[in-house]
Amino acid sequence: MGDTTLFHVFLEAYEKNRDKTAFIYSVLDKEYTITYAKLFEDVLLLSRAFKSKKITKNSKVMFLCDNRYEWMVTDLALMSLGAISIPRGSDTPTIELEFIMAHSECNFLIVEDEKLYQEHEEMIKKLKLKSIFILEAKQLHTLFDNTYSYLDLLKNRKIYQNEIDEFYALRDNLSLDDVFTLIYTSGTTGSPKGVILTHKNIMHNVLYLPRLIGLKGDDVWVSILPSWHMFERAAEYLSISEGCCTVYSTIKTFADDLEKYRPTLVATVPRLWESMYTKINNALEKKDPKKAKIFKKLIGISVSYNYNLRIIKDELPRFTQNTFFSTCKKIIPTIKFIFLYLPNVIAKKKLQLVQEKFGGRLRLAISGGGTLPEYLDAWIDAIGIRIVNAYGMTEGAPGLAGRALNCNTFGTLGLPVEGTEIRIVNKNGEDAKPGEVGEIIIKGNQITPGYYKNDEENNKSFTHDGYFKTGDLGKFTIRKELIITGRSKEIIVLANGENVDPSRIESTISILPFIADNVLVGQDKKGLGLLLVPDMEKMKEYVLENFNKVVHNMENVLEDKNILNKIKHDMNELLHHSKGFKPFEKLQNIHFLDEEFKLGVELTNTFKKKRHVIEKKYKEIIDKFLH
Fold this sequence. Notes:
The protein is α/β, with parallel strands linked by helices. It is built from 22 helices and 26 strands.
């Protein structure tokens, strides 16, 4: 690796790909195409301006901004100077922002626009910041003020050769051990923690992940996740490192952008795959219910064919060595495979049309930042899209393992990333056997040196021999492929001492069309309950189909005990012991919520549920319906 930092990688990418497109983005329906040469020029100009405003090595810069081209320009400009960026999205509540800015001891602030600045102005004025920069604003600097717009900073766009030489020379001031960012995780529990990441941490991903996904210079990414989130940020760094093109999209334009830009790669979170799944199925049902039924049948044929083929090819999770009986177990799947062969050829041909919804060129779909439900994994696979189910976390910058091109074992998260040591240990700290659940602990160059100013967390998070405790529970197959089974902090312990992993139950239940979201509850209670956010349109269809009754609102549903009993019965059927659920994993009660979970409140930026917030907010309801 030498002393190659991310800034070295950027300079090299510019030299190799000057005329190639680096980014595409749209503002008010006008499309902008940015070459690597333009990116280089923009980064140099902003770096020069920041330097003139006394941003230097190790300056801490709070950066409050959402996805946009200027995000990456700002990030690279700060990196060139050896400054430490502390990025967050525009939806960060003032109270959280105040905590982060005070805790990180930041001395500069960059804000996306004037509206966002005004939202936090009162709090910001209490802090003694050296300078404040507003990315999108008219020229606003006055003589005795320390606030600048980017227009103020970039008035002079003339670049001299000696400035290019000086810009290149900045790389000599950087080393692999330098901190390049502090990311405060909007975790699912407690106050945000500042994850320290060095160039060594991110370079581990930049070096090893491209070969796992066969990344090439002609690949096109469509980007939708928050840029400040480490999963998205790493994807954009990988894209730059190989001279690829990244298209900035939004949740609103995502579906259209997939068809328009025809990406070869998409990196996103399970929640957005759920959204695509719902959108495609709903559109079909509205357009033609008969075609929707045929589509479901085609998916069913493809899923069944793929499953039986995997048994034959030994591409399903295995926890024991193969024996003579293992070979015998392939007889029935082989017969099924033969019978399904022709129907599958037809199904796959028809399902190719759905691939067009994703642009028709999608080589790999990368899912990370949370557990991908089994039904979604199988559905995307049935359509014929190769899905890379990845495991990572901010503390691993983020890549730790993935079912990439080097692993075909479905139902797993694949093998550890090269140079990464993953162990699964039981309560005694001993290595668990294949199939045995334990805590996942990790060592590797991508692992954070620790949390900023947080000795208590650092002492809790590392073993005496330097392994990072992920807090995730998992097991290995016999081939060392990883399977996540839950999160130790999220495990629900019932009054009788039984442990329940909520994520598996929630993802199983979410297959019911009338559920927009759901959270399992029951800590210290006799049984389990479910808080549900309904999709009212789908609920109306469900009631009409099952009871031949028209309901207009949720009150109509709640008034009818027969409907509620049927819903609970259908849910518990999904949690049947034949599907691997235990008797105590049945639902004792359900409760419908009258408002959706909101980003930044009950959900993190990657749509993970903040359980402690939800349980606190709905404590009275939980106590009442699980008395």
